Amino acid sequence: MTSPSLENVVTPPASVKNDRSRGGGPKRSRKVLFVGLGVLAVVLLLDFFLRDILPDSSIRQLLMLAACNVLVALSLNVINGMAGQFSIGHAGFVGIGGYTSAVMASHLHQSLGGGEPTFARSFVVVPVCLAASAGMAGLFGFFVGLPSLRLRGDYLAIVTLGFAEIFRLVIATAQAGDGTAKAGVFAKIGSALSSLGG
């Protein structure tokens, strides 16, 4: 009876050896850090010089809407592409984040002195609004995710679609006569978020 050689038992297979190199290690994390810092530097420069570079406010607004849609696409990539979950109700979470961001931006703009131009203080307002909207959407996502933890495929899609439809109906019925969402539940959420801002 022949016994396997010690070299074959101790040496990991080639696939295990290569897994370590796929993670990237310290070189990859440094590269990601430098790319992230570079993007942050470009964003900060754009924040200070965007009005000088693009005096047309409609183009600046178009760029901001494009940036918002890029964030939505990235989050969809995480859910559908990386996690492999089929979630149809993504628009509900985007709506919660957008509403939270709008309330916080309005309140912070007024507490910082208001006036025109609206986006002159975006260096302060945007990070706070992004954090608040991500936190609020994450909180709602946590509460929707708890009962649907074990669901996959079509069942998860139905639950998330139901949540998005509930959110749409709440927004539609909570609108005041002038079309702004100031009545009902969202007025209380908006005043609570405004009190958090200052």
UniProtKB/TrEMBL annotation:
Its main location: membrane. GO terms for molecular function: branched-chain amino acid transmembrane transporter activity. Residues 1-27 are annotated as: Disordered. GO terms for cellular component: plasma membrane. InterPro entries: ABC_transp_permease (IPR001851), LivM-like (IPR043428). The chain crosses the membrane at residues 32-50, 62-82, 88-108, 120-143. CDD domains: TM_PBP1_LivM_like (cd06581). It is a multi-pass membrane protein. Keywords: Cell membrane, Membrane, Transmembrane, Transmembrane helix. Coiled coil: none annotated. It is found in: Cell membrane. PANTHER family: HIGH-AFFINITY BRANCHED-CHAIN AMINO ACID TRANSPORT PROTEIN BRAE, HIGH-AFFINITY BRANCHED-CHAIN AMINO ACID TRANSPORT SYSTEM PERMEASE. This is Branched-chain amino acid ABC transporter permease.
